[in-house]
Write a structure and sequence with these properties.
The protein is α+β, with helices and mostly antiparallel strands. The protein has 2 helices and 5 strands; from the N terminus they run βαββββα. The chain is globular and about 45 Å long.
């Protein structure tokens, strides 16, 4: 009998990945492209869980590579919906790398994805409005709103049909 996941927090997602040899560059660190691919997957899953419909990536903002990620590290992606527009969802993602041998963790990356909810024919569709409740959500929402206003002021595109 299927269980309902309605009780799950619909605006957050945590995902962990073990960094394997096929994911590293010549220096033994995780290749940036593999990290970006995983970040996009996490943003997709977080936004789709929230909107309950298909989503596409509109933009990626401020991918900061603070520290290298090593082969054998367990990386955990902490994603949350920070803000919603009419059809868009900002997902903030923090990456934590765990050295399993040393039993230590470090914050390696942060970034923001703007995802657009789409329906039939990839036409943007409205998403539920995100209403922050906790102090942390309210702070993240405020910063996301500032980023969105700056982006619109700078002339960055709004979501259109067939994104």
């Amino acid at each position: 009998m299927p269980h309902s996941i309605a009780a799950l927090n619909q605006q957050t997602l945590h995902m962990s990945v073990l960094v394997t040899p096929d994911m590293v560059n010549f220096s033994g660190h995780m290749h940036g492209g593999d990290l970006l691919k995983n970040l996009d997957r996490v943003a997709y899953a977080c936004a789709m869980r929230y909107a309950a419909c298909n989503v596409v990536t509109l933009s990626v903002d401020k991918v900061l590579f603070k520290q290298p990620i090593n082969i054998g590290d367990l990386i955990t992606f902490l994603a949350s919906v920070n803000y919603t527009g009419r059809t868009s969802i900002e997902v903030g993602i923090k990456v934590i790398a765990e050295d399993l041998k040393a039993k230590s963790i470090r914050h390696t990356n942060s970034c923001y994805f703007t995802m657009v909810a789409v329906g039939e024919g990839n036409i943007p569709q409205e998403v539920p409005m995100f209403v922050p409740v906790t102090k942390e959500e309210i702070e993240r929402h405020g910063r996301a709103k500032e980023r969105r206003e700056k982006s619109l002021k700078d002339g960055h595109p709004r979501p259109k049909a067939n994104v």
